[in-house]
Amino acid sequence: MNRYFKLRRTLFLAGLIMANFTFSSLAAVGEAxxxxxxxxxxxxxxxxxxxxxxxxxxxxxxxxxxPQAASSEGGSRTITAGQGQAVDDGQSQPENPAMxxxxxxxxxxxxxxxDPGNSSxxxxxxxxxxxxTSAPETTAPDTGSLETADPLxxxxxxxxxxxxxxxxxxxxxxxxxxxxxxxxxxxxxxxxAMQWSQPFVNDQWCDVDGRPFYSISIFLEDIIGNIHYxxxxxxxxxxxxxxxxxxxxxxADMAPIEAIQLRFSGPVSNDYDLYYTTRLTDGQETxxxxxxxxxxxxxxxxxxxxxMAFFRKDDIxxxxxxxxxxxxxxxxxxxxxxGSLRYIHGDGSNYTGWGWVGNQRYYFVDSYPVTGWxxxxxxxxxxxxxxRLLTDLEPIIGANGPFLIRINKExxxxxxxxxxxxxxxxxxxxxxxxxxxxDTPLGTFKTPEKYRWRLMIHDLYTQYATRLGSGLSIxxxxxxxxxxxxxxxxxxxxxxxxxxxxxxCIRLTTEDSKWIYDHCPLGTTVxxxxxxxxxxxxxxxxxSEIPFxxxxxxxxxxxxxxxxxxxxxxIAAKYGY
Length: 577
Known about the structure:
Largest sheet: 6 strands, mixed
Radius of gyration: 25 Å
Helix content: 10-25%
């Protein structure tokens, strides 16, 4: 194919794929919390106000980008107080070796390693002697407009696209994302032996001689996203949802599990449907449930086993989900009855509590969904006219502050709260996905300074950085950049959001770090804590993986579609497309 045609086609296709370059995340996969009677034996896969710009010494703050290359961040800075000294412990978290973090054209000098264990940066000493230089504010490079671009790079016609690509990027294109398949690894906690079973993989029956169990733990590996699951017993109802290797809560009487619900979220849920079936202790096998619906029994005994399967959404499934997945007096869950949304319990009774349709959340009182403002579980929530829980209240109440920021280090989740009068900070305004690190400190802090671009250790950069506390080398900031240039991002640090990968800083997407920078003035209180519950909302995800060669954060509000199109053409041309 003519080289110029390839370039013209690529620019057009860049516009087609831009909608796909939005939020995504790699599930935070940690070890299943230990049960009181034993631990799961398998390990997880590595899976404001801007202050005045002044000239100051360039002490550097800490962060790393994972085992394959140490990274850091920074650039020109706006400060109002003295800067904390950087101290990097040089630690980073294990990573799935199938997902490399270094771009082929990386110039950081850090060696590429495929060792799945921890590795350390080449230079872990803080830079305390950088010269005092004025680092100008950096904006997106002026790449011109489509009207002034080389005519050979103008979009091709619709007929050319249909003839050559049918609207899709060609296989192997540097801005295409490889198709990945999930790997599910499951263990069950046996009632009689009070110990975890061996791991079961993918669609194996999770079955140990038909013996009942009272907790499950499921890891999602080899793909970006989350698996959520919960369990039911007649005596206690449904447990809370758990995620990515956590174990379902164990009832005090160790009652065996009778039913389950499973669902994907994040990029994996864009591509795959999750099915599951169960076997009861009397040998009866149920039908298949799908994507968060109930499978098992309510009042008909315990589960002896269950099995999972997943199919790509564009493939024909060999499995059909139907009402036979649950053996009960009544269909369990959210249903339309006489034209109204209702939640009917499996025994036929009215239901009060949370309910889900896929990843959409509702709250029911006597089987009817609530709407408007509601006080539930110590928080003040807002539900739309259809009963759906809204997880971003800025369009409803604005973003006027003051704010309280709470960061759940264990779950890599940040929630921003506003006051409900004398009730305190109980309105969750919105939540953000984060990536913390082993050295992220717990406690209560007040933000002392912020930086538009910030130079970090290893001579890499971050945008929209806010220092966590006075004297700390820990910042809340964007993902990693090679330079103070929005077209120099490390795609891996975007795709791996939600994994504990930093040396202690709290990473966010560029859009989210900018929100903190713009809306949370200096002196904002930040609480860092640990909990297995993400917060009042489910843990956010980023909606899709971005290509390995992509050089920009798709959430960055500073870059234009024209700049993205021209950068896409540059990348494609570099690789001969």
